[in-house]
Amino acid sequence: xxxxxxxxxxxxxxxxxxxxxxxxxxxxxxxxxxxxxxxxxxxxxxxxxxxxxxxxxxxxxxxxxxxxxxxxxxxxxxxxxxxxxxxxxxxxxxxxxxxxxxxxxxxxxxxxxxxxxxxxxxxxxxxxxxxxxxxxxxxxxxxxxxxxxxxxxxxxxxxxxxxxxxxxxxxxxxxxxxxxxxxxxxxxxxxxxxxxxxxxxxxxxxxxxxxxxxxxxxxxxxxxxxxxxxxxxxxxxxxxxxxxxxxxxxxxxxxxxx
Length: 258
Ligand SMILES: [Zn+2]
What we know:
binds zinc ion, L-fuculose-1-phosphate Aldolase, 9 helices
């Protein structure tokens, strides 16, 4: 990604984020990956209304500062996790848009998909990730979803979106907030009707054809029982294996995962 363009877009979308009312105080963060070893991002402890091109921070692939007068934000670890999981992703945006954040803090998943056009833009899933402490724990909780989707809600921590450039990531976040707003308006009327599979499937096919699908979109995350069964099979298949011991180890693992 061209650095001058990335800087211009970071400043523009920081301000848009503030004036859209998606952040307060120092909330929100944005970054763009220039190369594998160069990520330019917003500074910590700044109102998004005040971020100028000269305030941006450049870090390496491990988050060490390369240039800039200010410090990077602590949630950078989440951005770096997403870049590591998705080589084609070049931009990550995070904010606390009120409607999306309301779904997260009340522990309600967004009942997506209920609007056909959003299926093409966001795919079949906009998950709500469990509440964690910000930083490393948030990155670990989000990791299983990084290759499955392009946007998610996080309980207690707003909404996240990523994409091949800042504009795409921004538009995804905007759409998530819009969907949450519509879902919220529909709730007193009985809530949005989920789309039936005969509507969703052709839209997903359209998304794949347009090259928009996330790499592991629609994949199921293996539950503890599936992992335990695979472990038991692998252990029991080893030369000289004790099948009883393999079963016991697999059951212990399932208990830990569950
Ligand atoms: Zn946040």
